[in-house]
Amino acid sequence: MTSPSVLDLVSAPSRAAPESGIVEIVNYGRQVEGLVKLWVGEGDLPTPAFIADAATRALAAGETFYTWQRGIPPLRAALAQYHTKMFDRPFAPDRFFVTVGGMHAVVVAVRMIVEDGDEVIVPGPAWPNVPAAIELAGGTVKLLPMDFRPEGWTLDLDRLEAMAAAPRAKAILINSPANPTGWTADKETLAAILSIARKHGLWILADEVYGRFVPAGERAASFHDVAEDGERILYVNTFSKNWAMTGWRLGWLEAPPELGQVIENLVQYTTSGVPSFLQHGGIAAIEHGDSFLAYQIERAKRGQAILEAALSESNRVSYAKPGGGFYLFPTIDGIDDTRVLAKRLVDEAGVGVAPGTSFGPGGERFFRLCCARNEGEIRTAAERLADWLRKL
Q1: What is the rounded (10 degree) CA torsion for 239, 242, 245, 251?
Q2: What is the pLDDT along the chain (392 residues), one digit of tens a residue?
Q3: Is the peptide bond before 125 cis (omega within 30 degrees of 0)?
Q4: Within a domain: residue 39?
Q5: What whole-number distance in Å separates Cα of residue 93 and Cα of residue 41?
Q6: How far is CA 200 from CA 108, 139, 172, 175, 203, in A?
Q7: Are 71 and 80 in contact (CB under 8 A)?
Q8: With 0-12 CB in 10 A as exposed, 13-18 as middle and 19+ as buried, what is 117?
Q9: Number of structural domains, the chain?
Q10: 249 shares its domain with 302
């Protein structure tokens, strides 16, 4: 009698969790000498010293014990002040819950609202982690394909309305500015989405992680601009992008205060809280990080302009100018499988990109470039891509 494989003994949902297509390409090109790596969603700057020093001081002071499941009070107060400044109206600290990165905020939010068989509408192409979290929670992802034109990606509100009317529909995911497309909803679009959600009794999961990375102004439009108190909206966010803290795994979930005990319980049974000394770094980022964030935004804009100029030399390349975020998501006429393309670019151009196949249906013809890198690297990548395209 043959013993079953250990793999056969684990749960079906865990076995079905998709592998990351981005990680596949990273592993493929990880050891290629001289490769310019524009594949992952982070910049190349280390965390600023003033943030690291705040965490170091807290660590040296003995902040090494179990802590508040909802986040230390000073950080929750700082998050409330940050939102008060951004949206010019008061926010209470009890709306904010500190998480182990934005992904943990996603997992907690999904666990609160999604049960077996519930449908979550996800405009796509989309960052793959949220759909995976929905499916691991027993939910069903209902993809709403966005329409691509060089003038910009668009969301079909009539199709959204029809999908929202489905009997098992439970929530709508809105990532704006969007990873990977750069689609950025204006206030009117957000108000229309909120109206659909209200009409059908749906939750909105609002991923506004890239809200500060916009071509002009201080921030992108937000559901905060159109929502009233007590709405069924859960906001997920992170310190990672704004303040170069991807490795810290520090984020937050904003939710109605009535959900506080539920969120505390879910934090308790997933991570038991975020190390308190790390949270002091978060306070420093919020209170003293404006100039660093402004520098990051300008740096990403320069990187985007350089890459756009290089790609525009080829009449085979199309892309929608992003309304926010720090990515370009181009397509090359005649190339339909960007998983294969990504490996070719590693081998033939010396540039690492994220294949659009990683972002679900609708992304297959596209590839993602991260613009939040130093100008020298961006120029090298731009020259290599332009040269490769000329030879294509």
Answers
A1: 10
A2: 677 788 888 888 888 888 888 999 999 999 999 999 999 999 999 999 999 999 999 999 999 999 999 999 999 999 999 999 999 999 999 999 999 999 999 999 999 999 999 999 999 999 999 999 999 999 999 999 999 998 899 999 999 999 999 999 999 999 999 999 999 999 999 999 999 999 999 999 999 999 999 998 899 999 999 999 899 999 999 999 999 999 999 999 999 999 999 999 999 999 999 999 999 999 999 999 999 999 999 999 999 999 999 999 999 999 999 999 999 999 999 999 999 999 999 999 999 999 999 999 999 999 999 999 999 999 999 999 999 999 98
A3: yes
A4: yes
A5: 29
A6: 23, 18, 11, 20, 9
A7: no
A8: exposed
A9: 2
A10: no
3-class DSSP string for 350-385:
CEECEEHHHHCCCCCCEEEEECCCCHHHHHHHHHHH
Domain, as residue range, for 316: 6-47+291-391
**Burial of 19 by CB count in 10 Å (0-12 exposed, 13-18 middle, 19+ buried)?**
exposed
Do the domain assignments include residue 1? no
Q: What CATH number should be reported for the domain holding residue 78?
A: 3.40.640.10
